[in-house]
Amino acid sequence: MTNIISSNVGYPRIGENREWKRALEKFWKQEISETALLEETTQLRLNNLQKQQDLGVELIPVGDASLYDHVLDTSIMFGIIPERFKYDGGEVDLDTYFSIARGTNDAVASEMTKWFNTNYHYIVPELRHAKPTLTSNRPLAFYQEAKDKIGIDGKPVILGPITFLKLSKGYEEKDFPTLLQQFLPLYIQVLKELQAAGASWVQIDEPIFGTNLSEEVITAAKNVYEQFSKEAPKLKLILQTYFGEVVNYEAVKSFPVKAIGLDFVHGNALELIKQQGFPEDKVLAAGIINGRNVWLSDLESKLDLLETIRTHIKSETIIAQPSCSLLHVPVTIKPEGNLDPVIKDGLAFADEKISEIVTLAKGLKSGKQQIRQELAANKQKRIQFTQASGRTNDVVRRKIDNLTPTDTARTSPFAQRIKKQAEQLQLPLLPTTTIGSLPQSAVVRQTRTKWRKGEITANQYEQFIKDQINKWIKIQEEIGLDVLVHGEFERTDMVEYFGEKLNGFGVTQYGWVQSYGSRCVKPPLITGDVSYKEAITVKESIYAQSLTDKPVKGMLTGPVTILNWSFVHDDVPRQTVQNQIAFALRQEVEALEENGIKIIQVDEPALREGLPLDKNRWQEYLDDAVYAFRLTTASVQDQTQIHTHMCYSEFQEIFATIDGLDADVISIETSRSHGEIISTFEENTYEKEIGLGVYDIHSPRIPSQAEIKQNINRALQSISPTLFWINPDCGLKTRNEVETIGALKSMVEAAHEIRKAQFANLKQ
């Protein structure tokens, strides 16, 4: 008889009402003490553990919670503190912890980038001059806390050494084995102390095994896990992978661990087991519930999958669990009162996914008859959702099917277009602009809430938005920016806002998910075929342009980002949905152009994050992304300038794709990479116009003019001043007015000084 264990891989940190976010932001504003922050977050953490136990989970993760980011937590645990933060050894205080993440007046924050192919951002560890040391045993502290305070014998979660080092920067690949040996005794100490404290199962997260690792890395990794097994033999280690199938499965399955966690949702784990087997002496932790999407699972199908898995393995135990941490989905559907009941019944957030796991474990253990009522209710809800009216749009499907190559091609090549654009726009050398959003103050958010609650009229709200646009057009003109933006004060979020305006989407009230730090987003739900309903951004763009003689950019979120940052139902291929979004946005682009908007920015910050972990699958994804972007933008006239913005992440790897978008101007988030991306332009020829972010907007610090000049001059060593734009590295929504104005003034003053010098050079 197979032993079945229900487990969770990780739980959302934010709380049902974003208590964690609010506590953090109060602390940063000095409205509560450090003691109060720790008390509030501790109670939330314990409540989350208790909830999982009450829902019936047998293996409950502990140590997966964080005050900011789990990768940063690992850096802190091992004393990986960049020199500029002046760390003297010992336990790391909270001020240093948050300074690394957010920066200070004297030290820039560490780089932040995407956690594999998700919209979660982690703080990149900096290993240059690193001298690893164990500052505290964080997993042990959380294990003991759960055990002592609420009687839960939890499953400590640790970010594995291979993933931690591969996600770090500041070393050469040849130094990887040496660095790994420096961290090995520290990891062993953590594990031995957990063993001594009585821990049974320990989850070591190694999602990096879903990528294309070299044989040398795999060999080094196997040696590490052999040492773990030797030094802490009583611990039942789970080597946890997720986000795709294990590329080096044949090697990884031989690692001396008690269990291996495989993702049966993304990738082809079942085929790997069928073809290459699964070790008889290991436990399979089967990730069968999608931890990255929010739709109700087909429980009967999932139970059949578990039965199939059981027939192909010989181990005595199977762990049933989500495919990855539930960090990537909202907490619970319970408070969602405004959703169509049919849509709501088709959803499963974190708590509901845990219930699905517990139900499946019970069914696998005791048979379908024991969960027949749950299966029947699940089937009825899915049928009602599938048959819901308005989910299909045959007109849109026919239009997408009938697209031709000319629908994705600009009329003229860039060299011809840019001359017409230059003549029309009359911009100076090194033009200055921002990425799009401007500060969303508490007043902006409160006024939007009042309007939605009916406390103010639609006309009053519209006038408020106009007043904000008017105010910030004047501020931008006073600062001296060359290309302005309307500020996006009417938008809650760059994806959610479009979800509210397009057919085929639904929007939740409380479906918050952590993006980075205390920043949470509410991904919309794509419930059916997507189509254009009405103008989305035209009214605000026209109004802003009427207030100034300078060009104002129309601001749209691109199809790839809308898709990647939404919860997409899986009964229509993602490529089809992406093209439907692109076709709808194309109509908005045309409407902006018809109304005199000369520059239109279609942002794609999520383009790279959607890449499969396995590089062998990249090209198809990138081809689809280029097609969708060009479908959105290709119908405009030569004189209309198309911009796009992307977040930094190993730009060199997708250089050809960025060029293939055929945007006239791209801007790239670069400041946290400390200019490393510029080397890409030293090695490749890029003939279109580009803006590399010259300061970091994720930090509250105001950069000096000298610092910005240094960043600009570094870029101009590789990029012609006739092609270079000067801008922040991302939108300014999360910054306050003082920070925004101060930083933009520094940026414009630095640009003016360099412009004079460059203009003199060009005249010579």
Describe the structure.
This protein folds into two domains: 380 residues, Alpha-Beta Barrel (TIM Barrel), CATH 3.20.20; 355 residues, Alpha-Beta Barrel (TIM Barrel). With 764 residues, the chain is of the alpha/beta class. It is built from 27 helices and 21 strands. Strand 3 and strand 4 form a beta hairpin. An eight-stranded parallel sheet has the order 1-10-9-8-7-6-5-2. The chain has a six-stranded parallel sheet with strand order 15-17-18-19-20-21. It is globular. Helix 5 runs parallel beside helix 7, helix 7 runs parallel beside helix 8 and helix 26 crosses helix 27.
Q: What labels would you give this structure?
A:
TIM Barrel, 2 domains, 8-stranded parallel β-sheet, 27 helices, 43% helix, globular
The largest sheet, given as strand count, sense and whether it forms a barrel, is: 8 strands, parallel
Residues in β-strands, percent: 5-15%
CATH architectural designation of the largest domain: Alpha-Beta Barrel
Strands, count: 21
Q: Which stretches are poorly predicted, pLDDT < 50 over at least 5 residues? A: none
Average pLDDT, rounded to a whole number, is 93
CATH top-level class of the largest domain? Alpha Beta
Write the layout of secondary structure elements.
Layout: E1 3-6, H1 19-28, H2 34-55, E2 61-62, H3 70-77, H4 94-102, E3 112-114, E4 121-123, H5 138-150, E5 155-159, H6 161-166, H7 176-197, E6 201-205, H8 215-231, E7 236-240, H9 249-252, E8 259-263, H10 269-276, E9 283-289, H11 299-311, E10 317-322, H12 341-345, H13 350-366, H14 372-386, H15 394-401, H16 414-425, H17 442-452, H18 458-479, H19 496-501, E11 503-506, E12 513-516, E13 519-521, E14 525-531, H20 538-546, E15 553-557, H21 559-564, E16 567-568, H22 574-594, E17 599-603, H23 618-633, E18 641-646, H24 655-660, E19 665-668, H25 678-683, E20 689-692, H26 705-716, E21 724-725, H27 737-763
Parallel strand pairs: 1-10, 2-5, 5-6, 6-7, 7-8, 8-9, 9-10, 14-16, 15-17, 17-18, 18-19, 19-20, 20-21
Antiparallel strand pairs: 3-4, 11-14, 12-13
Helix pairs in contact: 1-2, 5-7, 7-8, 11-13, 17-18, 22-23, 26-27
